[in-house]
Amino acid sequence: MYLKQIEIIGFKSFADKSKLVLAPGVTGVVGPNGSGKSNIADAIRWVLGEQSVRNLRGSKMEDVIFAGSETRKPTNLCEVSLVLDNEDRHLQVVFDEVTITRRVFRSGESEYFINRQPCRLKDIHELFMDTGLGRDAYSIIGQGKIEEMLSTRAEDRRGPFEDAAGIVKFKHRRREAERKLEETKANLVRVEDILAELEEQVGPLEREKERAERYREFADALQKAEIALLVVEIDKLNERFQQATRSVADRQAARDLAQVSVEAAEAKWQQQRQALDELTQQVEQLQQHYVAVVEQRQKQQGDLALIEQELGYLEETERTRLAQQAQHVEELKTLDASIEQLRESHQAAEGKLHVLSGELEVAAEGSKESRRVEISNEIDNLNAEYIEANHRAATLRNELKMLEEQLQSDAGKRAKYEQDAARWTEQIEQANRAIAEVQASMQQLTQQLEQAADEIRACDAAYEEATAAEASAVAELQQVRASIQTLSARHDLLRDLEEGYDGYALGVRTVMQQASRNRLSGIHGTVAELVRVPKDVEMAVETALGGALQNIVVATEADARAAIQMLKQRQAGRATFMPIDVIQSRRLRDAEIQRVRGQAGFVGIASDLVETDAAFRQVVEHLLGNVVVADTLEHANALARVLQYRVRIVTYQGDVVAPGGVMSGGHHQRKGPGLLGRSRERTDLEEKLAQLRAREEDLRAQQAKLRLTVTEAQSRRAEAQRVLEQHATQQQALEVTLRDHEHAKSSAEERLAALEWEFHQLASGKEAIAQRHEEAARSLAETDALLATIAQAMTAQREALAEFEKQQQVMQERLTGLRIEVATLRQERDTLRVRLDEALERKARLQELMASAETESRAFAERKAKLLAQAQTASEQVTTLVDEVSTRQSHLDDARQARLQLEAEVRHLEQAVSKERQEFGQAEELLHRAQVAAERADADLAHALQKMGDSFGMTYEWAKERYPLTTTPEELEREVQRLRRSLQALGDVNLGAIEEYQRLAERIGFLTQQRDDLVSAQEKLDELIEEIDTEMANRFLETFHQIQEEFAKSFEVLFGGGEARLELTQPDDPLTTGIDVIAKPPGKRLQNLNLLSGGERALTAMALLFAILRVRPVPFCVLDEVEAALDEANVARFAQQLRMFAGETQFIVITHRRGTMEEADALYGVTMPERGVSSLVSVRLTDDLDFETA
Fold first, then answer.
1. What is the distance between the alpha carbons of residues 123 and 48, in angstroms, rounded to a whole number?
2. Quick check: is 133 in a domain?
3. 138 to 12, 39, 141, 1115: CA distances (angstroms)
4. What is the DSSP letter of 585?
5. Does residue 363 surpass a pLDDT of 70?
6. Is 187 annotated as a binding residue?
7. What does the alpha-carbon distance between residue 407 and residue 772 come to, in Å, rounded to a whole number?
8. For residue 920, is pLDDT > 60?
9. Distance between CA atoms of 509 and 496, rounded to whole angstroms?
């Protein structure tokens, strides 16, 4: 693929329509500074989807539209089109030529087109994703951008590497998977909310269901008990009939009984003979027991030696213990003397402390605060009495003033009260008439409200039912969509892996990519692509083929040679080729096939289990025609023996039995499908996706229908609600009116009653007011006298308190000295107490150690006695075991005697045969009697069976199997009576609650399943994201190492020596790691990039760019004055590199350097014939590199 043409209309300085017709190779764009030649690079970047105005050297998107000049008006839009040659299908579309167009209007609207068909910006991004041509790709390097490849942070240098690794699309799909994961989590929360609401309804319904189940349980138990009783009766009759039948059979078999008895006697003889052989074996066992007894005696002797050794150890330990005991006794004597001394010192301190404590109590008694408190309390009491008396005097003065004013005002109130009473009585009568009218209207409105409420309840029921159904449909639809998203993401991933030949060797991948671009002929595909394998034998065939899965099938040997030559030229690894014109079939001989056909575990010949086109059948026969497939490794071993270990056999699990008998197998540990499984899994996913999409359409139709039902219910309810609210508003208005009338009436009644009470009070209270006035004046005089007395007492008490304060200060100084002395003595006493306690504790520990030593001494003595007893026992056991040998010999003699007895018994059995024959005649009479009894029992049994069918509608056999008797018939009869009483006690039961509960449980189960499915979808999305991360990491690391190798080479070429390398800042995290560039130009030390000159930095960046192009060539690359900082020599090296890469990558170079122009295949000139307007001209080069217009 290459860029054929660029069309520019109204973009920046290109006001007129301009067209650049390009060809493969190197095309140069030249022109003076400021002519607008860099706008061509901006136009290409813009049409490929660039959204950053800063990267387009502007401040807003409107800046890309021609802004006008001194002689021209601004244009209202700009448009740029790129015409790409796509004959090699580098872009994943079916067109040989692809035109990408972008248009923007000054109003801000944007339009995008692919082959003149409207599309989205997203479609353009996805079209160029992982091609190296995207908006952020390394195919367009603008002014100053070449150094940014080095000056940016290490993390920001990942972009070109990711694009070269082809993981941009994977990152896009990872973001899509994360978005779907968030949607799945939201759906999961909604389903869990619905489940919580339904589970609240389960409780009451479950109780009704349990009551109904108890009723059914009792009813079923009653029927079972009655059937079981009838079965018992039938069993008795049947037993009677069977006994009679058996009696007949017994008598009829009597003639054969003698012969049977003879055979039984012979069998018994054989049994006794076998017993004789067993006796012989017992003799051998007795011999073995003798040897065991000898060995046991030796063991007992060894045990005796160990016992003597342990006795020596016990004696040594006892001596050590006695020495420690003596030390403890001496230490105890020393401790006793120290304890006695400490006790005497402690008692002396206690006595002195007692004397000082007495003095302290006397001093404290003299300094008590009780007198101060007594005087203070007395002052407080007098003060409180003074305040209370003063308050009482003020109250009395106010009361006297109020009584005087009231006497003056009562005279004018009596006339006004009489007029107000007449007015309030009239208002009460008017309110009563209005209340009666309002109550009649409210009664009529209440009936209308009830009718509207009934209609709303009916609508709510219909709405809830439809809403629940719709929620269920929506939940299932979301689940289906989540599954579609998950499966689609998985399908796309597998498709990308197949199209990118991921998992194949580098050589295979290179050949297939070149073939897809029509650069190689005769390539049919890899073996993995050309065969179709059932899933059950997929592992077996994949194991049998092994590395041959990556073999490339070609038409002829010449095609294979051409591909191998290409790999050598590109140094792109190795590959194995299978030319159809020379490959011969290999297959087991018919005789070998017949030997294994029909053998256990034989599945088939591997080539017969694989499907492929007829053209490739000999390839499959060549690879798998002599491989046998077995179901298990055990059967594979058996088949290998049949084929004399000359044939390779594989199993379902991938175990292998190779010719010669070599076996290999174990656990296959892989996360994703193998090369064979990709295509099959894609087909399975497509079928599942088709089913899910059909289900999605059904659910959409169901949801729409339910939504219509919900809408209708909402409309009906809204109308009913409107009527209800209208009536409710009217009722509220009437209630307000009624309350107003009742309030008016109540207020008038209260006011009238108050008037009557006040009038009565006025009439009867005049004398009381005068009497109260006289009493208040008298109380005021008494209170004033009391205030004077209290003031005198308060002055005397304050003087007594001042005298007490002087005496108290002298006593407090004496008390402080005694307290310090007592505290010091107490500390000394406590120290002595601690030392005494420590000494006593040490004495107790020594006594415990001595007691413990005594206990150990007794234990050692007991152990010694026990060991001596064990020695004696072991010696006695040896003697006992020797005696046992003679006992075993005696048993052998007894067995020989038993054999003689068995021989005599056999002879006795022979005589018994003849006796059995004499008893044949006695059976005839008994046979006739048994036949009569059988007929009578048969009649009774038939009657009972008929009752079983008529009463319970079942056969005896069916009842017998399902209603076994678990107790006695008498207890069963009592159980029947109890069950009948239990049914009566339950009363009325809602049996429908069982089915209703079942429906609710099924709905909960359905939603639970949906929740589980959403959880499963969430887990699958997590797995998908993990797979994408793994794939991106692998691709990134592989590409990084390739670029790293090529960078070192390119650097050395461009610099004429030196060394450079790339390093990962975080090697353990390939998905986020930054990339450091280390450079050492010739003759310089390894140094930081910032210390390099501008030319060295530019040349280093170019080396990195050429390394990326070597690893991942792009169809075309735009370079905008990237060599501006280089000297002439380095420009020449740069131009040579362009020429070297021009075979695979088309270069459009914007330049003003002579060396670059010399290597260009064609040149375009950009001029500015009028100020602010650029124009394109085709130019040709003369020998002295002067420009001439073409």
1. 11
2. yes
3. 23, 18, 7, 12
4. -
5. no
6. no
7. 12
8. no
9. 13
Of the two residues 213 and 1140, the one the predictor is more confident about is 1140
pLDDT digits (tens, 9 = 90+) for 813-850: 666 666 666 666 666 666 766 666 766 776 677 677 67
Residue 72 included in any domain: yes
CATH code of residue 557: 3.30.70.1620
Burial pattern 92-115, b for ≥16 Cβ within 10 A else e, equals eeeeeebbbbbbbeeeeeeebbbe
pLDDT computed for residue 1187 by the predictor: 43
Q: What are phi and psi of 336, to 5 degrees?
A: -60, -45
> What confidence tens digit (pLDDT) does each residue in 982-1010 have?
777 777 777 677 777 777 787 788 778 87
Asked which of 631, 654, 675 is the last residue of a domain, the reply is 675
Question: Can you give the pLDDT at residue 874?
Answer: 66
Burial grade of 795 (CB within 10 A; 0-12, 13-18, 19 or more): exposed
pLDDT at 147 over 70: no
Q: Which residue has the higher pLDDT, 543 or 856?
A: 543
Written as one letter, the residue type at 764 is S
* Cα(915)–Cα(897) distance, integer angstroms: 29
The DSSP letter of residue 672 is S
- Answer yes or no: is 298 within a domain: no
What the block records as the tokens of 1008 is 């639970």
The overall average pLDDT reported for the chain is: 77
- The percent of residues in the chain predicted with pLDDT above 90, rounded, is 10
Q: Give 701 or 6, the one with higher predicted confidence.
A: 6
Residue-level pLDDT at 143: 59
Task: Identify the residue with better confidence: 757 or 103.
Answer: 103
Which residue range(s) make up the domain with 1174?
Answer: 2-139+1114-1189
Q: Is the pLDDT of residue 708 over 60?
A: yes
Of 1039, 94, 1031, residue with least CA distance to 490 = 1031
pLDDT at 269: 53
37 is in an annotated binding site: yes
Alpha-carbon separation of residue 1006 from 203, 1055, 1118 (angstroms): 18, 71, 59
Confidence tier at 69 by pLDDT (50, 70, 90): confident
Question: How is 405-452 classified by DSSP, letter by letter?
Answer: HHHHHHHHHHHHHHHHHHHHHHHHHHHHHHHHHHHHHHHHHHHHHHHH
Alpha-carbon distance values, 1159 to 41, 496, 1119 (Å): 20, 38, 14
Q: Where is pLDDT greater, at 679 or 593?
A: 593
* Residue 937, phi-psi category: left (phi > 0), alpha (psi -120 to 50), beta (remainder): alpha
Residue where a domain stops, chosen among 675, 709, 735: 675
Quote the strand ranges of 974-1074, DSSP E.
1059-1064
490: in domain: no
Distance from C-alpha of 777 to C-alpha of 652, rounded to nearest angstrom: 124
In this structure, what token pair is assigned to residue 1158?
A: 């010399």
| Residue tagged 């007011």 (tokens) | 769
Rg for the chain (alpha carbons), in Å?
Answer: 57
**pLDDT tens-digit series, residues 1068-1122:** 888 888 888 888 888 777 666 667 777 788 888 888 888 888 888 888 899 988 8
Known binder of ligand: residue 110? Answer: no
Residue 32, annotated as binding a ligand: yes
811/808 Cα distance (integer angstroms): 5
Is position 35 annotated in a ligand binding site? yes
Among 289, 300, 214, smallest CA distance to 990 is for 214
Is the separation of the CB atoms in 946 and 954 below 8 Å?
A: no
The vertex-374 CA angle with 373 and 375, nearest 5°, equals 95
In this predicted structure, what is the pLDDT of residue 1183?
43
DSSP state of 74: P
Domain count, the chain: 2
Q: DSSP per residue over 363-405, as a string?
A: HHHHT-SHHHHHHHHHHHHHHHHHHHHHHHHHHHHHHHHHHHH
Handedness of CA 221, 223, 228, 229 (dihedral sign): positive
